[in-house]
Write a structure and sequence with these properties.
The structure is a homodimer of 365-residue chains. With 365 residues, chain A is α/β, with parallel strands linked by helices. Chain A contains 13 helices and 18 strands. Chain A folds into three domains: 130 residues, NAD(P)-binding Rossmann-like Domain (Rossmann fold, 3-Layer(aba) Sandwich), CATH 3.40.50.720; 149 residues, Rossmann fold (3-Layer(aba) Sandwich); 65 residues, 3-Layer(aba) Sandwich (Rossmann fold). In chain A, the strands form five sheets. Chain A has a seven-stranded mixed sheet with strand order 9-8-11-10-12-13-14, sandwiched between helices. A five-stranded parallel sheet of chain A has the order 2-1-5-6-7, with helices on both faces. In chain A, helix 5 packs across helix 10, helix 6 runs parallel beside helix 7 and helix 7 runs parallel beside helix 9.
């Protein structure tokens, strides 16, 4: 169902622009730079061309079938554009435009009007007031977003309620050389919501690990039902922000959640088998470990180090979190005795000493 | 008193070597590469030269006055070398050689013998079983250590009981562009100890922040007395490792501490006005903030962001740690109203929005 969103064969950008750093330019640029595998159609009633593309005055003028359209025009014009998208047979629109549910009564009405039109034509809506989505699958390479992180193919899919937090995470995954599989930052989630995306990624063979940034859960019961199933099949990691009184207050002025101090969301997430984090660096490092290594079957850990001090730090951290350091067996100890340096420490951690060579590490492992 | 250690005018390396990656080569190489401001005298009874230097057969043959000598020869030969250093008028020796107090009874005896000789000649001993010291002061540039981090001038002085942890910290400070002021990793601290170094750095005008890695405190009462004074004058940050049962066990096989689960050291450190950490990244980031910014006078914080989500993360972290987010005054709000984007959020955090320019930040600050 979400294939048109995450695996589009052709993308239109309604409200494309030649002004650098505008959303309408950045999306066209990102699609090109990341190597999108299908045609790109910028729509602009005045410009003859956008970047290297002929611009069409209207989405109805596009000569080919389009799966997905970005809409970046003024908020009051969005319902009209969606109607045309419906007539054109477009399946999903990403409404980047803000000024809907998040601005109060008037915006709520406009959002309802927009959804009614979309429903009439069977168009699914992603957003409004959002970044968009990305898919690094080499068959697709869809960078339907205006952010700045380069897209590297990876196996971690990232969903971020805050696009700013999503960009911080993507930057870090890029620095770590991990990239991502798919990405979504859904804004007001007026139609397509976090749960539906989670389910889609649960069924995506290219997604090994799922990372979530959450400010408020839209429909906790529905989310929990899906999350419980997915977390049995692949690791799901979450960072819930706005967990303090003032943090929750800041959330309400950001994405319009209306919670007081939120102590329940993390409990719910954990009950669903989701690993929770409060630090984005730890979130990224955990995702890295889970993406690159098999999930451990037990809590017994062996540590190999070439310098004692960091081995002690790791011992503290692991045992505080419930891991156990197995004793080294007599037999292992005997076999190591003659092959490591005589001063090597044969307890757990095994300290092969600073000048150890790769052979020493292999023996200890 | 420790000037000869941290501000030597000439350094000898007894046991210098031409074999790359040996301690006796690395120290000579580091002194040269980091731009040490005085003469370097490698001592080796067989080699005619070490690196680019004439090698002297014996420390007694060196034609100039020497303040500081590294000793890297076999453990049983160390007392004899110290005796010669004493006769030569050398004030401090760094005994890199291992095989003393940390290896049991026989080593303890050798260490006592070494100290007796040193005392007789008024030679101070740093180590044994240690890395050494560094001083990035542009007048000195002494890299008296065999590690691999390049020396950048900085204002943070780092003392590490584990040289391995010290190297991790130095690497990170280097990556952050901060470098260090002075560094010391003292091994068995048979003579010169952590407290004496702490006091020296407390009086060093170039040291703005002091970072400590601690596995065991040698003389807690004496340490506390000095630390209480120093922490009034400049920030002292500490990371105590081996705080869990298995971590403490690993400490005892590393630097020979004999504590069970150690819950008291952190309490003592905090009582001395020292900030304690369990994570080396947080330790480095805190040192960075304290080295680059004035110490805050109160707990009221204002946050400026250009994207809401990360502002919420910061709000959670700060308020959980006792900071308070001041309300923005009516007057400030009014003056911002017309000058930021109309959609900017004028609460605290102030969200100037993603496309804000430097002028917007300046207004909000």
């Amino acid at each position: 169902m979400l294939d048109a969103l995450f695996r589009p064969r052709a993308v239109a950008v309604i409200g494309a622009s030649n002004r650098r750093l505008t959303i309408g330019y950045r999306i066209v640029e990102n699609l090109v730079d990341s190597g999108f595998k299908g045609p790109i159609f910028p729509i602009n009633p005045k410009a003859p061309y956008i970047k290297n593309f002929i611009a069409y005055k209207d989405i109805m003028d596009v000569p080919l079938q389009v799966d997905l359209a970005h809409i970046i025009v003024k908020n009051t014009r969005v319902p009209g554009e969606i109607e045309k998208c419906g007539k054109k047979g477009i399946k999903v629109v990403i409404v980047n435009t803000a000024g809907f549910g998040e601005i109060g009564e008037e915006g709520v009405k406009l959002q309802e009007e927009m959804l009614a039109v979309a429903k009439k034509y069977g168009v699914r809506v992603f957003g409004p007031n959002c970044q968009g989505v990305m898919n690094s699958d080499p068959e697709i390479r869809a960078y339907c977003n205006f952010t700045f992180t380069s897209m590297i193919e990876g196996s971690i899919s990232v969903m971020a309620q805050s696009g700013g937090v999503g960009e911080v995470i993507n930057n870090r995954l890029y620095e770590l050389g991990l990239g991502f599989r798919m990405y979504a930052s859904y804004g007001n989630q007026a139609d397509i919501n976090a749960t539906e995306i989670l389910e889609y990624w649960g069924n995506d063979p290219g997604t090994k690990v799922i990372m979530l940034h959450i400010e408020t859960l839209q429909n906790p019961a529905e989310f929990a039902k899906v999350a419980k199933e997915i977390s049995k099949r692949k690791p799901v990691l979450a960072m819930k922000t706005g967990r303090t009184k003032l943090g929750a207050k800041a959330v309400s002025s950001h994405t319009g959640g209306m919670m007081a101090v939120d102590t329940t969301t993390n409990l719910l997430l954990e009950k669903c088998g989701i690993l929770t984090f409060t630090d984005e660096e730890e979130l990224c490092q955990a995702a890295r470990a889970l993406a690159q290594l098999p999930v451990a079957e037990g809590n017994r850990v062996g540590i190999i180090t070439n310098t004692g001090g960091p081995g002690i730090i790791v011992t503290d951290e692991l045992t505080e979190r419930g891991c156990d350091l197995s004793e080294i067996s007599e037999a292992s100890r005997d076999s190591l005795q003659g092959n490591l340096y005589p001063e090597a420490s044969l307890a757990n951690p095994i300290d092969v000493l600073a000048t150890a060579n790769p052979e020493h590490y292999k023996l200890a492992a």
